[in-house]
Amino acid sequence: MTALPPEKLRPRCDPSSLPFRTTDELPDHSDLIGQDRALEAIRLSAEVTHRDFNLFVLGPSGTGRHAAIEEVLKAQSGQRPLPVDWVYVNNFDAPHKPRALSLPPGHAPRLRAAMQDLVNDLARDLPAVFESDEYQTQRRAIDQEYAEKQEGAMSDFADAARAEGVALLRTPMGFMLTALKDGEVLKTEDFGKLPEKEQDEIEEKIARLQEDLADVLRQAPRLERAHAKRIEQLNAETAARTVSSRIEEFDPTLRAIKAVSDYVLEVEQDIIAHADLFLQAVAQGGDGGFPGPLRKFHEDPAFDRYVVNVMVSHSGKDGKGAPVETEHTPTLDRLVGRIEHVSQMGSLVTNFTMIKPGALHRANGGFLMLEARALLSEPFAWDALKQCLKTRSINITSLAERLSMMSTTSLEPDPIPLDLRIVLIGDRMLHALLVMLDPDFGDLFKIQADFEESVPRGDRETDALYARLIGAYSRREGLPAITAAGVARIIDEAARRAEDNTRLSLRLGQIGDLVKEAAHYAKARGAARIEAEDIDHACEAQDRRAGRIKDRMQEAIGRGTVLIDTQGAQIGQINGLSVIGLGNYSFGRPSRITARVRMGAGKLVDIEREVELGGPLHSKGVMILSGYLTSRYALDVPFSLHASLVFEQSYGGIDGDSASSAELYALLSALSEAPLEQGLAVTGSVNQAGEVQAIGGVNEKIEGFFETCRARGLTGTQGVLIPKANVEHLMLNDDVVAAAREGKFRVIPVSTIDEGISLLTGIDAGTRDGTGKFPKGSINARVEARLRGFAETRRDFLRRKTDGGDAE
Amino acid sequence: MTGRSGGLRVLIGAESLLDAEPAFRLIDRLSARDIAELGGLLLQAAELATTPRLARQRVVTPAGVLAPLPPASSASVWLASDANRFRTRLAAVAGARQWRVDVEQRDLDHIADFTRGWDVFILGCRLTHRLPGRVVLVSGEPVPEGETARFAREIARSAGADLTVLSNDDRLPARLTRLPMAAVILDCATAPLPEPSRLRAIVDAARCPVIVMQGPSG
């Protein structure tokens, strides 16, 4: 196999193939590319009117999900009618159950203002009416009528008593009747001198008159009640005339709305019944504020019962424009709204004016975008959202109520009907977990929009579209124009970040950050445009900033702390390659893998697994090696190998099977006793048929070994064996490409273990001939012979043991 | 009258706390500035103790209930108890103002002995109902002016009642007896105090507190 030519190591975008000199010449193009599938899903969710076609947008961050969703939703919302307004008003019959009224768009503030005017006007009109001479005259007439009835009765009684010679005495306990004689109260001794008959007559009179007086006095409460009713009636009639007259002037447009009309009728009755509220407020509120006509009586808490609490109101041209809302902190309260309380005399109280809207109220009739992770992190927010979607109504229930921790009075507002589209934005893991663990999720979120992470780079058109996207981005962000060479360099970087030279990364957030940093360097050197060198500078700077650990690891190899050979040949020892990921940054490094073999009972020991440092994928890879060996060599004898494999100087966990081919080469070397070239490193997984399979992070792995070799001096024999399937993932850095061009470093694709072992040992692997034997001296022949030898040794050993046992 | 510059000196006289209560309520409604000192005079007339006790005789309570007469032997106990409650109530109404209470075993015939030195003397009388009534100013002048008229207007305002002016003639008791009233104010600033029998007739006819405004000589 031959090394790859330099142009295969980093297929470049040719600036001359781009049809512009700078991005200034490009038209605006903010449409996403390569996200057709996701956009179709978003559009479907936005357009379908059936319930529960809510959307889960999944994919990595920085792929333009938010912008794309907003753009589609805003376009769709512009065609939708404005949703209705919602207000809460007092329920005069049951104040703890505030009533929700729906109004045509934009009418809620108008109703609120109309009610404020009504209260202000009546707070001025009603006291004036009750202070008027007309009312006072009527009232006094009633007072006099009833008072005269009682006074007349008392007066009549006093006259009658006096006429019968009986005096009315006032005692601390009440009235007492006693006899008069010549206008004076008769004393006990004088009374005793009277004839018995006269005494009896006096006693009879007093007894009778006592009853009469008791009747007169008992009549007083009845008269008082009748009087109070008459006054109440007069007040109601007086208030009714004023209130009705004012209500007739109430905004006719609003009164044409049935719900408002009904509400206003209730308000009218309530104001008539509570006219004293208006009189008291005026009497108490004499100090401060504007006097008379300018005073805002509606701000007085006494008139809270007539407040219109606007939950949501919409306005827009031509009656179009459904809301598109985003809630970045989707707590339970901010989502479904809340009922606030105030402390009064040590207890918490509330009323319907303290109901506050949530994101669901604001987005009702339109779209609400939420971050899935944030939503799921908030206690009860997800449950509350599901409940609202299921019941198609917004029920405001606080966290304290849900936890049954609320003992104070609270409200049960009318649920507000809910009709909106929820757009949840999250990653694929969250989506998978919700699908698996929440049985409601599939019912409520019927559509998923899966954003691609990269786009195929099939032709020049894709590069040109990508260039327009970058140009639009730099204009939107106020960055300098980018030259064609600069754009080409960005496209190359996008391919590298996609880990595929046939695709471009759609993580536009990362690419955008790169362009911004390059713009900074361009500005620093006084350039008007962003050139390729600025992009290079930014890439290098990013790499340098993140590369401290990589540098320390390379330093450890250079100083011999970590043992890696890059020259010579060794039996059973090979340079494997691994990738270390640190968030958005990853790098490769070589690791020494060694294998040791001897006769045994067919056991392949993976030391990493034995000490629980190897992950399941790594263990799987090692077990595949066992399968490869047992199925390929010495099939006619028992598999009598005992082998051990280890990643030397590895003290952390290892997972993945990308080193399985390297481990197999080390085993074959140990078995065949053929030394392996240490200037070559190996990556790739292997299957039981001996085919080398693609792995991830190929660029970082090659660059990691290249760094190690360069630090020790490139010899021209050094290089990396990679799976052939990884060739199209190569986007190596310029240093590797330059070394390859100069013949100092090689990247060699292999497709089978036989190819690889031949390259590593310089000895033909060998294939079985017509008799089923490998060519003499070939690697495979030597491996088979060794394994057969182990089997025979084992057989001899067992025989000796058996014989010895018999002898005993 | 005396002491007007620092507020009035007001004496409340009554035959029981029940009679004094409407007078206390009137005072309560007046501005604190109007009154400098408050006096109480409980007139415990001997006639209650000397009237004959009849088997079918009862006390008629203000609520119209017929209650048995307290035994004559205990009359002194409940009179003393009433005096105590009168004193407590007056102290509460007086608040931070100066106050004093006198209990006299005499009746209205000796009124002049008690009222000397006071600007205003209110003779309490229980109301037989809670229906609103007017304030009547009894004056020798058809259009009263001066301190008494001002005081009468203040009483009417505080009671939320109309003020009616009547002349002080022989027909006054007959006119008062059928009139619903909150208080009667007698302007005695320029005239001598009425005879006790006349005063008793006015109180019996009015069935409400009678306020006697005295002249400087008191």
Automatic annotation (TrEMBL), chain A:
Enumerate the Gene Ontology biological process terms: protein catabolic process; proteolysis
Which EC number applies?
3.4.21.53
GO molecular function: any one? ATP-dependent peptidase activity
User: Which residue intervals make up region (Disordered)?
Assistant: 1-25
Query: Would I find Protease among this entry's keywords?
Result: yes
- Residue numbers annotated as active site: S658, K701
Domain Lon proteolytic: from-to ranges? 568-763
Q: Among its keywords, does the record have Protease? A: yes
Residues folding into a coiled coil are 199-226
**InterPro entries registered for this protein in UniProt:** AAA_32 (IPR041699), Lon-like_helical (IPR046844), Lon_proteolytic (IPR008269), Lon_Prtase (IPR027065), LonB_AAA-LID (IPR046843), P-loop_NTPase (IPR027417), Ribosomal_Su5_D2-typ_SF (IPR020568), Ribsml_uS5_D2-typ_fold_subgr (IPR014721)
Q: Which UniProt keywords apply?
A: Coiled coil, Hydrolase, Protease, Serine protease
Catalysed reaction(s)?
Answer: Hydrolysis of proteins in presence of ATP
**So what family is this one in?**
Belongs to the peptidase S16 family.
Q: What is this protein called?
A: endopeptidase La
**UniProt organism field:** Lutimaribacter saemankumensis
From TrEMBL, chain B:
Q: Which domain of life is it from?
A: Bacteria
List the protein's name: Uncharacterized protein
Which species is listed as the source? Lutimaribacter saemankumensis
